[in-house]
Amino acid sequence: MVVSARLKEFTTGPSMVRLSTSLLLGSCCPLALALTHQLLVGTFGTPYIYSVAFDDAARTLTLASNTTVSVGSSWISLSHDKKALYGNAFVDGGNSQYVSYPIADDLSIGPATTVESKGACAERSIFVAQAPTPPYNVYGQPFGACGTVMSTTSEGLLSESVQEYNYLSSAGVHGVTFSPSGSFMYSFDDSGNAIWVHAVDNSTGQLSFVANVSAPIEKADPRHGAVHPSGNFLYAVHEGSNEVGVYEIDQTTGIPTYANASFPLIPAGLNTTDYWSDEVAISHSAKYLWASSRARSADNTGYISLLSLNADGSVAKQNFLAPTSTSGGAANAVAASPFGDAYVALTDSSVGFVEIWEMEASGAAAGVVAHLDLKDGGCCGNAVWLT
């Protein structure tokens, strides 16, 4: 028996797409599932949010819609329920700004809500993320020494700044992540070569300082990171030394300690100053960690890597390190799929495209299975999986 289901049509401006799912059921054979998955893609300044469809049976990427917005976002992230989209406001002048958009049931993107920082954060915002637990505040950073905590409405949209906080004056925080319980926020200080730890108040979402943890070597430069669902280990992209650094988290204090384990994101023998590592992403089952680096010159490629993780979050091994299609520009950002371990999205801003990479069943290698050019002069920032 074949059962077919279709998601609703959605339109944004003149573009329209129909996404479909096909489900094959049979008493004599295992379940076979083919889906079309939706991704959203941001840009470095051009005023668009792209909706991209990935068919995991045909292994194709297609442009579903292109939403014109008032301001571009080089970094986008989703609310915990995927009903709101957050982005940095890629504009200079004035205080740091952040935007949010409602995502309708038909997957269309609604009008923006903007919140401006109230404190001394005057640099362009570069990162924004929501806490994984109530009250679901949103945390924004410019590439500087301060940050903004924002409350949200019942729909998940940005409401107002509820706290402005400071790092050291020498800091340049590029990204944050949270413990699975939402009790701690970790800030990756690229300029200060450190990881900051803040406790998150479970009623107000406001922050209080816990610790500043120096990176294990000079010029490691932690940029972004992720915490394993077990809460035991944190993985930090060391942008300067082009490695993934592994840290073990104290379960009482929330403070990470370097676990004497780092894994290269460029091959041995290359000059680290020619590269700047970018992103990490934990796979759907938390059995793998994707990571990427970028090249500073278009004459060189970036690299993508996969690490196997043990159940407690410790790293079992580095599976492979492979060249990406291009340098990656300012992107080469990886986003692990929410529906399985095999797929990861990778964005490029040197040319302007999105790719889907598929891991081999053995986990020993991965390759590009789908590619979509989005050449608008600013694409592509990072991507997020909506479905």
From TrEMBL:
Regions that span the bilayer: none
Stored SUPFAM superfamilies: 3-carboxy-cis,cis-mucoante lactonizing enzyme (SSF75011)
Organism encoding this protein: Colletotrichum orbiculare (strain 104-T / ATCC 96160 / CBS 514.97 / LARS 414 / MAFF 240422)
PANTHER family found in the cross-reference section: 6-PHOSPHOGLUCONOLACTONASE-RELATED, CYCLASE, PUTATIVE (AFU_ORTHOLOGUE AFUA_6G11580)-RELATED
Pfam families for the chain: Lactonase (PF10282)
Family label: Belongs to the cycloisomerase 2 family.
Phylogenetic lineage: Eukaryota, Fungi, Dikarya, Ascomycota, Pezizomycotina
Name of this protein: Carboxy-cis,cis-muconate cyclase
GO molecular-function terms, A-Z: 6-phosphogluconolactonase activity
